[in-house]
Amino acid sequence: MFRRQKAQDEGEKEQLLDEGETESLSDFRPLVVLEFSSKTTPVTREWMKAKIEASKKHGGAELNAKMVVAKDGEERVLLVSAPQERLLHGAEQMGLKKKYKDGSVRAFTFAERQNIEDYTESLEGMLTMSQSQYIIKVELDNIRALETENHIPGCSNPKARLYKGKSLLSRMVSCHLLDKMYPVHNPEQLKRLQHDWYHLHEPKQLMGRQPIETIRGYFGESVAMYFSFLGHYTKALVVPTVIGVLYYLFNESGRNDFVIFAVFNMIWATVFLETWKRTSSEHAYNWGTLGRQVFEEPRAGFHGKLGVNRITGRSEPVYPSWKRLLRIYGVSFPIVILCMLVAVVVMMIYFWAENIAKAKHKEENTMLTKGLVLVPSIIYSVVIILMNQAYRTLAQYLTKNENHREQSSYENYLIVKLVLFDFVNCFLCLFYIAFVMQDMNYLRQSLAILLIVQQLVGQLQETLLPYLLMTKRIKKGEKSGLDHVSKPLHEIPRSKQAEVESLMDRYEGTFDDYLELFWQFGYVFLFSAVYPMAAFWALANNIMEIRTDAFKMCRIFQRPFMEPAANIGAWQTVFEVMGFIAVMTNTALIGMSPEIQPLLEGYTTVQKVLIFVAAEHLIIFIKVVLAFAIPDMPEWVETQMGRIEYQSTQALKKQAQLHRTRWMITSAPSLDNENYNHS
Amino acid sequence: MFRRQKAQDEGEKEQLLDEGETESLSDFRPLVVLEFSSKTTPVTREWMKAKIEASKKHGGAELNAKMVVAKDGEERVLLVSAPQERLLHGAEQMGLKKKYKDGSVRAFTFAERQNIEDYTESLEGMLTMSQSQYIIKVELDNIRALETENHIPGCSNPKARLYKGKSLLSRMVSCHLLDKMYPVHNPEQLKRLQHDWYHLHEPKQLMGRQPIETIRGYFGESVAMYFSFLGHYTKALVVPTVIGVLYYLFNESGRNDFVIFAVFNMIWATVFLETWKRTSSEHAYNWGTLGRQVFEEPRAGFHGKLGVNRITGRSEPVYPSWKRLLRIYGVSFPIVILCMLVAVVVMMIYFWAENIAKAKHKEENTMLTKGLVLVPSIIYSVVIILMNQAYRTLAQYLTKNENHREQSSYENYLIVKLVLFDFVNCFLCLFYIAFVMQDMNYLRQSLAILLIVQQLVGQLQETLLPYLLMTKRIKKGEKSGLDHVSKPLHEIPRSKQAEVESLMDRYEGTFDDYLELFWQFGYVFLFSAVYPMAAFWALANNIMEIRTDAFKMCRIFQRPFMEPAANIGAWQTVFEVMGFIAVMTNTALIGMSPEIQPLLEGYTTVQKVLIFVAAEHLIIFIKVVLAFAIPDMPEWVETQMGRIEYQSTQALKKQAQLHRTRWMITSAPSLDNENYNHS
Q1: Contact: B672, A92; criterion CB under 8 Å
Q2: DSSP-assigned letters across all residues of B503-565
Q3: Contacts 24+ apart (CB under 8 A), B249-252
Q4: Are strands A315-318 and B32-36 parallel, antiparallel or unpaired?
Q5: What are the residue ranges spanned by the domains of chain B?
Q6: Is residue B274 predicted with pLDDT exceeding 90?
Q7: Which of A535, B68, B85, B346 has the fewest CB atoms in 10 Å of its CB?
Q8: Whole-angstrom Cα distance, residue A165 to residue A45?
Q9: Alpha-carbon gap, residue B575 to B280, rounded angstroms
Q10: Under 8 Å CB-to-CB from A158, ≥6 apart: which residues?
């Protein structure tokens, strides 16, 4: 019975594809654009097009493709599309989850399409455009070399060798045969999104909700997760801002005992990060990314001897993990430590030079020496920016050199490197001022300058950079005879859209945006005890930040492919660790402030120190207990997940009874037994 | 095709069951014993027997049962058994995992029985006896009331009401109709196990390996996990013991700077606990319990209004979690805090009384006053033991009162209560001596006495208690005319075995054993800096402990039902937290020791304190980094788990394609939608 039904469905599918192929080309709605490099020969390009259109039986992707002419007059741009039914079958293959009419979120199957919440008879609208584009990307990535193919046709590069199961697209990227691959924008949707997101019509919208679900629909989960986190963090800043401003206004005595404020902030950081976990798991449940363990394909840059993946049993490059560990701990780790030491030395030189300049000024007190005092600061600022950029390139090089198999692992190791160095580079001079020089006024002043200047520079970059990119684009466009480049996409004729998008820069992911929040979080929380107004400046910045980031996403960059995300990954840990460091710095700052001493009269200095150590331990204890006590998932999400788990166990049981899993065993590759004799 | 095969298999099964039922009763090998209480009527007992034997279609368990005469001459003892094929089908239903011939551990299915590593044609030996007994227990627990049944037949107790889906056995327990239910011992296996485990033939066996796999086969995972942990901990103690003894022997100057030893111990605690995670995940993988999320049925004592479980969709009592939280934080929490305060007050009274006695002795110095000095210690020791016992009862009462649905949650809340109080009760006087009295010699002395005495009492209890229980059993046995009671089971005639086992006491789980290790771990690690010999005493005790605990399991108690376990649960957290507290106490002790002061000459006292605070933070940082850096699973386990995950995803995809999951959706109960509109 099942057999026959399957055959029937396949028949249906084939028929649908036939229809798709005979569609008149004027109806062709491109979803993804591939731009071959000028190095490619027509043979290679035609071979790739044929592969994309070929049936799965013949190693193809069963998608529709259309070759168009690039600026230089050659047919180097390939538009890829697929009919709705084909995409839905792809969604099923990929294990995409959808919300069903009964409220649960489960793996989508084409057979049950009528039970899906947003089912329509025409099937239109059942997938968001970004999902459709992602499905096409996955299908393209999964076009793999057949046994008979050992070289990319029409390509003389000896590196362009293939082996059975190698992804053709990743090989074309590594041989520089493919320049660009990006999903196209949808001008109408984009216009509506911009309107809801950052077009301010009334001032009351300033703290308004972001349209997270729409953002997710248009840009995918990882971008939506970033903006939701940014929103959650901004909302969380309101409370410290209010308290900080009240302190500022009514603390007329000029005393700086921000003790209660600092203690509140330390606890608040935990509450905010734990409630964020709840929000993020709600998102992840609704988006079908919660608890989804997807087997990760190797990164494009991953290399190694050809072997067998012990998990999938497929051929793929294999790289021994001891070699990777050697590179991490033997190469990267010492270099990172060295860089941090260099940053420390540079900082020491700065303080030393400043002291000399100040002494000179005191001695002579001329206009020249007054100017001289500023020189070290200016040089140091420039050096910091240069070091940051140089280190960034270095960190990327080192992490690439570690040869991680998975993109996620690559990103985590990169985050650790950047965060460690940036911590030293941004915060160490503040630590020096606070705990070595013990000059609280200077600390407050430096903190204010660093925070405000860094934010201003950031905002400028995010408005200046677009302007520069735009001018570049306009120039480029003029060369190619395009005069629409500066206009929003919905004001450009459809036929010119792809060409305009091709000129746009690629969006490199949420990395920089999180790093910016990391700095800000540090400035606000590490030194709350001396400068409560930091929260106010951070809040003001973030309200702007949401808009400039949104503008950047909608107008400056090529649309990115969506990336499934269930949380903010390693950044959660980074912020949590900062929360603990904040407890240490703040209790130390409070303990050192002269205003607190009279309160502890009668105690010896040692006893006072011990009291602060005890207080620090107590606050850390409270934070740990709070982190345990606040459940990471709201109860309704937990119940739903339990229900899905229970049903799938029940399903597997029934199945086992029907003896249907037999094929699973026969298809499992046999592994040698030697590793399992651990008694 | 599948249909037919299924029908065929069912036919096979029925045939097998028929054979089982027509088996001559002399061949009947009992696996599980049920003893009905003297309150039950023959009607109830016969009804239960019929249920156990009835087919699943009629709400039964399809097992074999045989009623035998109890001591009082009534037929109140029910022996339950099942043929091997029936048990294997039960194993499949339960989702039991087995090791396959290809080395992987996956859910067992009867259809693939030939691919299992320990496949035999007769099917004997494919399940361990403890697994067979566990399967029978699960099947018995799963006999549920039909729609037509609303009261236990032959029982006038109004509490004995039933509703559709209520487990009959749990209702019989709550109505005191079922006295005992236990799996029978296997005398031959037990004899061999005893021989391998604790019969010392040569001294070199003293540190020998325990037969963990055999223990697991006989007693199940949770008991095997405890003994494996005990063994791992004992081995880990060897290193501190060696260092401690070396210090003791060669530290002739009499100086007490155990600094290096203490720092080593703090780091060592983390290494030992992290490597234990690896060992435990290896066990769990081999035993098929790793990553196994089983839906937990409600505890026997759980009560609430009859409602619908939102996960399974079945009727069961429902208890709102806000009521539980109210009881936890409103009732239990304040009472626990109060008890801890009482313990503190009692301790203060003890020190006060001792001071008075000492002063009196100094003043008068007679024999009488010399005796008087000992009185407070003696009284305090007795009071501690009494408080401990009283608190234990209270904690159990409070936790029952919290009305947890799951047994695991009940146990976790009980562990937290006991550990909090025991920490105060056992360690607070040592903290007082160390940090308030600051008398290091007195601390060392008290620590030695507490550790050695507590361990001696423990060992005595574990050898005296068996003796007392044995005598009780012999007396009971004599009354019933049994004269074999004191002998090992393999020397008793088969026919008398069940009667002897019925007299044995029930094993209450690994709770007390872990609590004993908790005390010991505290004594050894919290004060390493003053008393390195603690490790030696602990090691000596544990080598004995393994034997006495083993003896207890094999000779004193009824065999327990196996319990699946993937790790040591909340105890892992408890030991980890103790590891962090140890860092604080030890750095404080080192900082306070007068011998360390000359090393820090030239620093002010405040600077010295700050140096120790910095050292403490550094050690905690190292511990946290180590905990992250040591992977919780060995690589081979990780690969295997990834492989299983990958294969099951692939299986689900194939399935989805074949549209076989449709039934899963139609059988899913519909939930109201209102909770899911969180945008």
Answers
A1: no
A2: HSBPP--SHHHHHHHHHHHHHHHHTTTT-TTHHHHHHHHHHHHHHHHHHIIIIIBPPPPP---
A3: none
A4: unpaired
A5: 25-184, 194-296+406-633
A6: yes
A7: B68
A8: 20
A9: 15
A10: none
In tens, the pLDDT along A490-516 reads 777 777 777 788 888 888 888 888 998
Looking at the complex, does the CB of residue A4 fall below 8 Å from at least one CB of chain B? Answer: no
Rounded to the nearest 10 degrees, the angle between the axes of helix B511-526 and helix B407-422 is 40
Partner B contacted by A22 (CB < 8 A): no
Beta bridge partners of A144: A167
| Gap between the Cα atoms of B676 and A85, Å rounded | 28
**Token pair belonging to B260:** 């290096």
The pTM of the full predicted model, rounded to 2 decimals, is 0.85
How many other CB atoms are found less than 10 A from the CB of residue A193? 20
Token pair listed for B613: 């605070």
Grade residue B18 by pLDDT with cuts at 50, 70 and 90.
Answer: very low
Chain B's closest residue to A588, CA to CA, is: B610
Query: Which one of A4, A102, A312 makes the best mutation probe of the B interface by having the most chain B beta carbons within 10 Å?
Result: A102
Q: What is the mean pLDDT of residues A631-652?
A: 81
pLDDT at A326: 95
A643 touches chain B (CB under 8 A): yes
Element (DSSP H or E) covering residue A78: strand A77-81
Task: Name which of B2, B647, B673 is nearest A660 (Cβ-Cβ).
Answer: B2
Candidates B13, B628, B679: best to mutate against A (most CBs of A within 10 A) is B679
Nearest Cα residue to A64 out of A138, A141, A144, A136 = A136
* Token pair of B101 as six digits: 């011939």
* Whether B4 contacts chain A with CB within 8 A: no
| pLDDT value at B144 more than 90 | no
Q: Does B639 touch chain A (CB under 8 A)?
A: yes
Q: What is the pLDDT of residue B207?
A: 64
Quick one: what percent of chain A has pLDDT higher than 90? 32
Partners of B317 in beta bridges: B306
Q: How many CB pairs under 8 A join A and B?
A: 166
Is A93 in CB contact (< 8 Å) with chain B?
yes
Q: Measured between alpha carbons, how far is A549 from B452 in angstroms, rounded to an integer?
A: 66
User: Is the complex ipTM more than 0.85?
Assistant: no
At A87 the pLDDT is: 92
**Which is more confidently placed, A296 or B629?**
B629
pLDDT band at A201 (very low <50, low <70, confident <90, very high): low
What is the rounded CA–CA span in Å between residue A524 and residue B73?
80
What digits encode the pLDDT tens for the residues B343-393?
999 999 999 998 899 898 888 888 888 888 888 888 888 888 788 889 999
